[in-house]
């Protein structure tokens, strides 16, 4: 049963940023809704409301929609026009196409909707009554259009003149329809009761696996039988096919069975479709259970290579680090919690979303020292598995033999002769040549013409005078 929920309204209110209290237009068509509820409390500003192609049986809970202008209830199970006169004063268009309205006199309740201009009643039982159009035109004088046809002024005058006679005809036809409708309801109720009784009998005599038992406790299959069922998927698959054929025959019989077009028949069709869908889901679940589990270890204990998730991978032997590296192309955006890695001495197993990837290793590894990580760019899973055994590098493990003094001195001279002698360079100096001084290393002072030496007068010279005010010559 479909119900109007807050989540349903929000999902259909994307054009209003999922805000429901200020909604002006709402479409809830084809939602299998059986009852009209909650909308008048949550969406009081609605102007347009689409509820066509549902299973609504009664017009209700719309009295608070004061701003409602257009209401579409086509293809539902409505049998009477009601509950629109109290609160929907602004209603201008009402669509009740293809419903089950047989009480044509119920249109009188729309006389209070003074702004109603368009009404659609085609496809209802009342639309087949003699004098149907004249009755509606005379009853609802505010109407401008009926069933998509404009109401002429002359047509309304004629309908008002013939109204007493037409009203009497409509009442008689309504009475006959109501009697027929009551008989149809009784017949439908009786058939429904018979089907329920048959279902109870089947439930009383059948076990959980579909077999017939007189005493469930005495004859239920043992654990060995159930184990045999698991080990024989072909038998279960045959039973599934048989049930599918039986369901197909029942489905064909249901659709070929003649039935009246009534609200009950629409509901019965819906229930049948729901039952069919549930049976299909059960069959698919059984098929999943029938599928045998993937064999990862053979009977003799040998691990098998399995790639059920169908992922690309590469396995390389890193001799430098003495380890085996597995690069598994896991989906980039898959969550790491969905990956489970199990490293064993002879094989590695990776569960990706429940699907096993298993690979036999070319050498024995150390599970305790192994590690795994995800690549940040590609999302690949990289597993590092150190190999068992010591690493042999150079001659570190070999013992040095005892040599004589002569041999050692000879080896030292040979080593010296083999070594290249290089000039020592002061590390404080620059390692590259000084380009500025590459040509001229010594600075030569420019030659100057030497002046002739002056003859300083001595104190013994008779012409010498010592003036104390004159500073001494340097």
UniProtKB/TrEMBL annotation:
From the UniProt entry, list the residue stretches annotated as the region Disordered: 187-243, 396-474
Q: Which residues form the U2A'/phosphoprotein 32 family A C-terminal domain?
A: 129-147
Q: Where does the record place Acidic residues bias?
A: 458-468
Q: What is its main location?
A: other
Q: Which PROSITE patterns does the record associate with it? A: LRR
Q: Which family is it part of? A: Belongs to the tilB family.
The protein's name is: Leucine-rich repeat-containing protein 6
Recorded source organism is Balaenoptera acutorostrata (Common minke whale)
């Amino acid at each position: 049963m479909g119900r109007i929920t807050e989540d349903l309204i929000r999902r259909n209110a994307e054009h209003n940023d999922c805000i429901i209290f200020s909604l002006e237009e709402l479409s809830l068509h084809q939602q299998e809704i059986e009852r009209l509820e909650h909308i008048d409390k949550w969406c009081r500003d609605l102007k347009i409301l689409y509820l066509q192609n549902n299973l609504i049986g009664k017009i209700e809970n719309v009295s608070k929609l004061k701003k409602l202008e257009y209401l579409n209830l086509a293809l539902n199970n409505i049998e009477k026009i009601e509950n629109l006169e109290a609160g929907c004063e602004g209603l201008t268009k009402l669509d009740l196409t293809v419903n089950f309205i047989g009480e044509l006199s119920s249109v009188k309740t729309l006389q209070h909707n003074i702004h109603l201009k368009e009404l659609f009643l085609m496809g209802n039982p009342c639309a087949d009554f003699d004098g149907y159009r004249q009755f509606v035109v005379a009853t609802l004088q505010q109407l401008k259009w009926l069933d998509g046809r404009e109401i002429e002024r002359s047509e309304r005058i004629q309908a008002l003149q013939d109204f007493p006679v037409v009203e009497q005809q409509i009442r008689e036809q309504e009475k006959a329809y109501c009697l027929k409708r009551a008989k149809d309801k009784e017949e439908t109720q009786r058939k429904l009761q018979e089907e329920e009784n048959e279902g109870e009998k089947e439930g009383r005599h059948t076990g959980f696996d579909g077999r017939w038992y007189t005493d469930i406790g005495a004859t239920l299959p043992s654990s060995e039988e159930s184990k045999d069922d698991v080990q024989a998927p072909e038998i279960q698959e045959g039973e599934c096919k048989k049930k599918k054929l039986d369901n197909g025959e029942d489905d064909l019989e249901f659709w070929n069975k003649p039935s009246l077009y009534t609200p009950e028949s629409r509901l019965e069709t819906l229930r049948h479709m729901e039952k069919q869908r549930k049976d299909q889901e059960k069959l698919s679940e059984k098929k999943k259970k029938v599928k045998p589990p993937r064999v990862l270890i053979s009977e003799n204990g040998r691990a098998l290579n399995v790639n059920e998730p169908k992922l690309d991978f590469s396995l390389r032997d890193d001799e430098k680090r003495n380890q085996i590296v597995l690069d598994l192309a896991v989906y980039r955006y898959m969550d790491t919690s969905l990956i489970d890695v199990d490293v064993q001495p002879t094989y590695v197993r990776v569960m990706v979303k429940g699907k096993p990837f298993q690979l036999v290793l070319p050498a024995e590894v150390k599970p305790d020292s192994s590690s795994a990580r995800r690549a940040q760019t590609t999302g690949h899973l990289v597993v590092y598995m150190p190999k068992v055994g010591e690493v042999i590098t150079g001659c570190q493990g070999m013992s040095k033999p005892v040599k004589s003094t002569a041999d050692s001195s000879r080896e030292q001279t040979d080593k010296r002769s083999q070594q290249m002698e290089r000039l020592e360079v002061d590390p404080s100096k620059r390692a590259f040549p000084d380009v500025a001084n590459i040509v001229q290393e010594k600075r030569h002072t420019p030659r100057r013409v030497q002046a002739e030496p002056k003859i300083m007068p001595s104190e013994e010279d008779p012409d010498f005078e010592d003036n104390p005010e004159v500073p001494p010559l340097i």
